C-alpha cells in the first residue's frame, strides 16, 4: 500500500492497515481470497465512513452476509439499448462526449452545431485512470471521494470520411473537407482530464474545475528518450526533432508507480495520406520499407482527409509525401508519422508539466502499458502489446532501479525521465512447450544489425521501427495483443488477444500466420449466414516471469481463457468450458482491481454481436499452469495433419468468472478505473450506435442507439460515448 499523502487519509486507514497486515499477497491467492476479503468486508470497512467533502450521513452498512467475490448474480447476454448491471448495483452516466470543461463553455446541444470542442469532452472515451485528490486538492494515493479521471479520446464515429454525429447533417463525406469540420474533428481526438467527486452520495463531474484539461492535435508534446533529436523525427514543425503536435488514436492506458498517466497511441497510421508516386520521390530509400510495415504504402488514403482542410500547416502535416527539396526533411512532413506511435506520459495533476512521448518503449500500435510489481533496488518492467493482426508483445526494462521514495516524488515527470527514457526493449517469443523468451531489441544484436529486410542506423531506428526489429529476431506473431495487466497477487502478466481473422492452418501470403502454441485456435464461427475465419473470439494469454523477475529473459505461459460461445465445440473452440453466464468474444480491456483483485475483462466484439452487445466480466484467476496441456489437430489440404500443442488454464466455474455488465447497442466496453477502496468503478462506453448511417441523422428513430439520452442524460438523441460510474447499493466493493 502507498503511504497516504493527504490530510483526510485518517478516514480509511483502518482497512488500509488491516489489509497490509493480512498481506495482500496471500490475500489475493486462490481460495484465500474469499475468506480474507470477507474479513475485510466485515471488519475493515466498518471503520471507514464518510468523506472529505460531505458530512457522514449514512455510514456504510457492514456487509451481511460477508463479502464474497463474484457474489452478484450474472447478467444475461443482452441486445437492449442500455447498460445492464447486476441486481444491487447502480450505473450512472457521469461524463459524455461534448460535456463542457470550463465554466464559460456552453451546454452541449448534441445536434451537430456545437463548437469549442477544445473545451469539451472528446469523443470515443477509451482507457482511463483515476487519480485521487485530497480535500485540499493535492495529489493523493488514497482519497475515495474526489479525484481526476484522465482518459483517452481514441477516435470519432465515422461513415466514410466524416465524424457524422458531430456535424449538423453528417458533415462532408467527400474531399476536400471544410476547415471547420476538420478543426472540430482534430479537437475531439486526444486526452482529457476531468475532476469528479462524490457529492451527497452521488458522483458528478465539475465543469469549472481548474484541473480540467484537453490535449488534442494542436497541443505541443515533447519527444523524450533515445529518439529525441534523431534524424527520423525532423519535420518542418520541429527541425531539431524534439516535438510534435498532439497525441493520436489513444487507446489503452497505464499508471506509473509515481502516479502519472500513460496513454498508448494505436491506429494513428491511417490518419496520414501518402502520394501515389511517393516511393520514387523518396528514391525508394529505406523509409519506404518502414512506411509499408506501418501501414502506409504509397497511395494510401487518410481516414478523414484532414490534409484537405486548407493550406495551413495544421492540415498539411497529415500528408506525409516527400515534397520538399531538403535532405533532412526539415521542409515538409515526410517524417511526421515517426512522431506517432508511442507511450505518452502526462501528469494529470499538473498542467504546467510537459507531456512526453517515451520513445524508449518503442513505436507500434500501442495499447496499455503496465508495470510489473515494483521491487526496491530492481529495474522496473513495463509490458505492452502491438494491436494489429499478427503483431508482437513487448517488455521494457528500465536502466534505473526502483527507489520506493519516488512513489511520492514531487516532480512526477522528472521521475518519468528517470525510469522511462533509458532501458532495454524486449519482444516475446513463445515456444510450444509452455516456455518463452524475451529477446532484446538492440542494435548490437547481430540478427538486427545485419537484418536483410531493413538497415537499422542506430538504436533510435530500432525503436522507431520496433516491428521490423521484431521481424528480424523472429518474435511470435500474436492474435492482436490489446491490454495487459498484472495480477496483484501472483505478479503474472495477462494479455488480451482480441481476435485474428488472419490466422490460418495453411497461411496464404505474409499477412496470415499458422496456429502456434500461444495462438492455437483456427476455426469458423457463423454470424448469421456469414462465416468468420481464424480466431474470431480471441483469448487471454498469461506470462509468469523467470526467477530474475523484471529482468528475466525467460518465462512460462498458458492461456487463461479462450473466448467462445457457450454452445461451441468444447474440444476445439470452447476450450475454457464457458457457460451462458460467462461466454464472451473479443476480450480487449483488461485490468485487475487493486482493491478486490478481480480481473475485469471488457469486450470490443463484432463476432457475437448478433446475440449480445459488448460486455464486461469479472474473473478470479488462478495461475500459470493450473490447467492442462492440449493438442489441437488440423487437417491440411494434402491429407496430413498439423498438431498444435498448447496449455489452457483451469476451466471457468461460476465462482471464477461471471458476466457483470452488458452495454448499449453498437458500443464497445473499454477503460476501467476505480477508487482506491474499490467502491466506485468508472467504465467507458465507446461509440454506441456506431452503425447509424449518416443519411439517417434527421430521424432519431433510425439511430441504432439513443444512449445515453435514453438513460436520461443530456440534450438531443444522438448517441454519445460516455463514462459511467458503478456503485453497489449497499455501499460495498464492486464485484462482490
Ligand atoms: Fe483501440 Fe486495440 O483497440
Ligand atoms: Ca456465432
Ligand atoms: Ca482497445
Ligand atoms: Ca478495440
General description of the model:
Residues 1-57 have low confidence and may be disordered. The chain is mainly beta and 736 residues long. The protein has eleven helices and 34 strands. The strands form eight sheets. The chain has a nine-stranded antiparallel β-sheet with strand order 13-14-16-17-18-25-24-21-20. A six-stranded mixed β-sheet has the order 8-7-12-11-10-9, covered by helices on one side. Strands 2, 3, 4, 5 and 6 form a five-stranded antiparallel β-sheet that branches. The chain folds into two domains: 1-68, no CATH class; 89-154 and 189-268 and 340-728, Neuraminidase, CATH 2.120.10. 58% of the residues are buried. One calcium ion (CA) is lined by residues 525-527, 565, 608.
Q: Find the CATH superfamily of the largest domain.
A: TolB, C-terminal domain
Q: Give the tally of structural domains.
A: 2
Averaged pLDDT, please? 92
Shape summary: globular
Gyration radius (Cα, Å) is: 24 Å
**Class derived from helix and strand content:** mainly beta
CATH architecture of the largest domain: 6 Propeller
Order of adjacent strands in the largest pleated sheet: 13-14-16-17-18-25-24-21-20
Unreliable parts: 1-57
What level of helicity do the residues show? 10-25%
Bound molecules: MU-OXO-diiron, calcium ion
The total strand number stands at 34
* Number of H/I helices: 11
Quaternary: single chain
Beginning-to-end CA distance, first to last residue? 21 Å
Largest sheet: 9 strands, antiparallel
CATH topology of the largest domain: Neuraminidase
How much of the sequence lies in strands comes to 25-35%
CATH class of the largest domain: Mainly Beta
